[in-house]
Amino acid sequence: MSDGRRPQRSSRTVGRSTGARVRGDTIAAIATAAGRSAIAVVRMSGPDAERIARKVLTPYPTAARMLTRCAVHSAEDRTQVIDHALAVVFAAPASYTGETVIEVHTHGGTFVPRAVLDALIAAGARPALAGEFTERAVLNGKLDLVRAETIGELIDARTSTAHRSAVLALSGTLTRVYAALRDEALALDALIAFDIDFPEEDHGPVSRTQVEAAAQALADRLQTLIDSAPAAILGREGALVVLAGPPNAGKSTLLNALVGESRAIVSDEPGTTRDAIEVMLDGDPWPIRLVDTAGLRTSHDVVERLGIEVSERYLRSADIVILCAESDEEIDEAQARISETTRATILQVRTKIDLGGKVADARGVSALTGAGLGDLRRRIMAAITERAGVSAELSALAMSARQRSALEVAYAEVGAFLSAWRERSLPAPVAAAHLREATNALDHLIGAIDTDEVLARVFATFCVGK
């Protein structure tokens, strides 16, 4: 009978691309970025962390979770002082990894933290692999796999939307959503098993309609999560918004106005922009990758033609295209050309309405006076939200590719069960096998089955020391 404890795993296991690793030994790494800085942090975790640290730290911290000023020296010769630093001990199991963790806060730079790490390694520690501290936190039950992935998302966040999504997911929101889905799949499988084993209990056989409704509800919830993936990607990477149109239509001036500073060369000479200029705007609620491109026209100039080819590549990848032109005739001509190149939402903008004789309308914008810029920003955000299919609030479900893949497998298996159940093409026990496969996919998603292959995939892109 199970005693509720995690099954014991082999202490030695095949590692990631860097080769074999040993679980249960003591690892160390520099946790802060390389380069000139005021402070650097060297971390160590494992069963021998205290013994190793005592060899290189004098005095050794006597109180957990309190910084202690100490000398860092060679394990062989205490007179060879490397640095005067601050050290702190997080005793197991009350630490990030669940093991004893020791941090040494050294002076920054390149040489000092490297020398401290070398001293710890010489005293018995092993250099940590990328993400190995967080991997140990998962294996020791301090984190679930979904929140571990979210830590990577938080580190890589470039926008407030990505940051907000990661912080919300780190609170356990995603884990609870996924765990609820798994519980639904298990309950549905148990309902069928109960009906098979005890068909005459209580109120008689379980209604086929009841089973179908429960399976359909589970499929719908899985589909909703899968459909939110584009919004998660937009929130993390930013919507690609491309300024396009004929030469000298004011695209570069408009980009500078939207950004709030001069990032593109502005000139009355047609064809000034020969290459794409990309700027990341941390917009609310959606971040934007705003791109100024070369004017679209027929040209025999080799350099300008290369710029136009770059423009067309951006148009093919765009989420939103801001079509810039001075007149209705130019807008119609550019619309026809752009529509052949992109499937993006096209927002028409009539530029330079500050010039004499120009009629202001809902599409009108003046980058010089600011007229229409607020409306244009609102149009862009509305178009992104419509394209994403959900509000920015749902971008909190910042699913990784691994999570989306597991959800898609679960959805396909639930769909296969529904099809067999409705058509009565399979006996109930055989059809229920699809539900068990769906549950298995959700187990892998939340880390209930922490195979080495899954762990390797999750932590492959982590930074060393985290």
Summarize the structure.
The chain has helices at 49-56, 111-122, 132-139, 145-156, 160-170, 173-197, 208-227, 229-237, 251-259, 302-317, 328-339, 373-388, 401-423, 428-446, 452-459; strands at 12-13, 21-22, 27-30, 39-45, 57-58, 68-73, 81-90, 101-107, 126-127, 239-244, 277-281, 288-292, 320-325, 345-350. It is an alpha/beta fold.
Distance, first to last CA: 37 Å
As a whole number of angstroms, the C-alpha radius of gyration is: 29 Å
CATH class of the largest domain: Alpha Beta
β-strand amount: 15-25%
Quickly count the domains: 3
Please identify the structural class as seen in this structure: alpha/beta
Major sheet description: 7 strands, mixed
CATH architecture title of the largest domain: 3-Layer(aba) Sandwich
Anisotropy-based shape = flat
Give a count of the beta strands, DSSP E runs of length 2 or more: 14
What is the N-to-C succession of helices and strands? EEEEHEEEEHEHHHHHHEHEEHEHEHHHH
Give the CATH H-level superfamily of the largest domain.
Answer: P-loop containing nucleotide triphosphate hydrolases
Sum up the structure in keywords:
466 residues; alpha/beta; Gyrase A, domain 2; Four Helix Bundle (Hemerythrin (Met), subunit A); Rossmann fold; seven-stranded mixed sheet; five-stranded mixed sheet; 15 helices; 14 strands; 15% strand
SSE map:
Elements: E1 12-13, E2 21-22, E3 27-30, E4 39-45, H1 49-56, E5 57-58, E6 68-73, E7 81-90, E8 101-107, H2 111-122, E9 126-127, H3 132-139, H4 145-156, H5 160-170, H6 173-197, H7 208-227, H8 229-237, E10 239-244, H9 251-259, E11 277-281, E12 288-292, H10 302-317, E13 320-325, H11 328-339, E14 345-350, H12 373-388, H13 401-423, H14 428-446, H15 452-459
Helix pairs in contact: 4-5, 5-8, 6-7, 6-14, 7-13, 13-14
